[in-house]
Design a protein that fits this description.
This protein is of the alpha/beta class and 374 residues long. It has helices spanning 10-19, 26-36, 51-65, 83-96, 114-121, 131-139, 156-161, 165-174, 190-196, 214-217, 230-240, 253-265, 279-291, 301-304, 324-331, 352-362; strands spanning 41-44, 76-79, 104-107, 126-129, 150-153, 180-185, 204-207, 218-224, 246-249, 270-273, 296-299, 314-317, 341-347, 368-369. The strands form two sheets. It has a seven-stranded parallel β-sheet with strand order 3-4-2-5-6-1-7, sandwiched between helices. Strands 10-11-9-12-13-8-14 form a seven-stranded parallel β-sheet, with helices on both faces. Bound molecules: adenosine monophosphate.
């Protein structure tokens, strides 16, 4: 199956070809035709599945087909939990829509509001936003919602985890009742299912990656180690294996900062990325990591969500996550698109119950090993 079989405009097909995509991914094969017909979609999909193009391409196509608009008009709203994801979705829209005249704008908190007000004044067809800043700008009268006919909730589970449910409900009240709704979520908790009721009309359900599949394509290792020995073990793994690009997860922001400082002190270039960092610091850390100046990116679960870093060779769980599903998200950051990935977890005795929960979810027992550093 090729992209041209969807009947997308030549301008969109050309942009896809320039991105180097030849075959649509699984989620794209299912989502694109459904969204083109105007159907609501409920998709189980995480970053790395191609979900962004899965909703962006048909949205662009539908906007192009609409007649009677004079200049840009806000018709599509995409909500994301984090600034990083908002920026990445916006960049994807710019890439896929670069040969069209459609406009996209991105707004998120943590940066000055004035440039965003200026950008909105110029007019936009698509708005990518985090909920808080959207409501801010709406309350100041900078947004007109009456023409919006498509709503995307991206990483809806994470939005709920981050406590955005009330903001989401407030946004929904501002939108015209008749619209197409597309909801993407990596997991389906009770709270997500509750949100979908009344929001989605006869949605097409799509499953891009069942929760346990990432686990089969990634080589997972468990190192049992005392908490106090984790730093030395991590240093050993990085230097002994000559790892040049590794994403390390910690449970807390404080833990991320401390670990990145300790690595720096031992001569390993590292940076921390989490919600307390300014937008500039986060962008800089991510850029340094992508370009290879930063060897280790230390992240919390929330900050790492939606980071698009292609084919990451190594992921390390410095701490195991409290929520077992987060383990699957974390290791899903390695070994994308068929390239081999390695996920190593440093597990202290106190964390063994967490490991048991993870093994239940991935339906697999993981081999434990120890390393002697003498
Ligand atoms: P996403 O899941 O939307 O975050 O996309 C993950 C990565 O896959 C991004 O770097 C995209 O550029 C890439 N991608 C999306 N669709 C395709 C495709 N059909 N072929 C190859 N790469 C793709």
């Amino acid at each position: 199956m090729k992209f041209d079989s969807f009947g997308l405009a030549e301008t969109i097909c050309r942009a896809i070809a320039e991105e180097g995509y030849t075959e649509p991914t699984k989620i794209q094969k299912e989502a694109i035709p459904a969204i083109l017909t105007g159907r609501d979609v409920l998709a189980a999909a995480q970053t790395g599945t191609g979900k962004t193009a899965g909703f962006t391409l048909p949205i662009l196509q539908r906007l192009l087909e609409e007649k009677g608009t004079r200049g840009p008009e806000l018709r599509v709203l995409i909500l994301t939990p984090t600034r990083e994801l908002a920026a990445q979705v916006h960049e994807s829209i710019l890439a896929y829509g670069k040969h069209t005249r459609l406009r996209s704008t991105v707004i998120f908190g943590g940066v000055s509001i004035n440039p965003q007000i200026q950008a909105l004044r110029k007019g936009t067809d698509i708005l990518v936003a985090t909920p808080g800043r959207l409501l801010d700008l709406a309350s100041q009268g900078h947004l007109k919602f009456s023409k919006i006919h498509t709503l995307v909730l991206d990483e809806a589970d994470r939005m709920l985890d981050m406590g955005f449910i009330h903001d989401i409900r407030r946004v929904l009240k501002l939108l015209p009742a008749k619209r197409q709704n597309l909801l993407f979520s990596a997991t389906f908790s009770q709270s997500i299912l509750k949100l979908t009721q009344g929001l989605l009309q006869k949605p097409l359900r799509i499953e891009a990656t069942p929760n346990s599949t990432a686990a089969t394509t990634v080589q997972q290792k468990i190192y049992t180690v005392e908490q106090a020995g984790k730093l030395a073990l991590l240093r050993h793994l990085i230097t002994d294996g000559d790892w040049q690009q590794v994403l390390v997860f910690t449970r807390t922001k404080h833990g991320a900062n401390r670990l990145s400082q300790k690595l720096e002190q031992s001569g390993i270039k590292a940076a921390a990325i989490h919600g307390n960092k300014s937008q500039n610091a986060r962008t800089k850390a991510l850029a340094g990591f992508k370009q290879g100046q930063v060897r280790v990116l230390v992240a919390t679960d929330i900050a790492a969500r939606g980071l698009d870093i292609e084919q990451l060779p190594h992921v390390v769980n410095f701490d195991l996550p409290n929520v077992a599903e987060d383990y699957v998200h974390r290791i899903g950051r390695t070994g994308r698109a068929g390239s081999p990935g390695h996920a190593d977890s440093l597990v202290s005795r106190e964390e063994l119950p967490l490991l048991k929960n993870i093994e239940k979810i991935i339906k697999q027992r993981l081999e434990r090993s120890t390393v002697s550093l003498n």
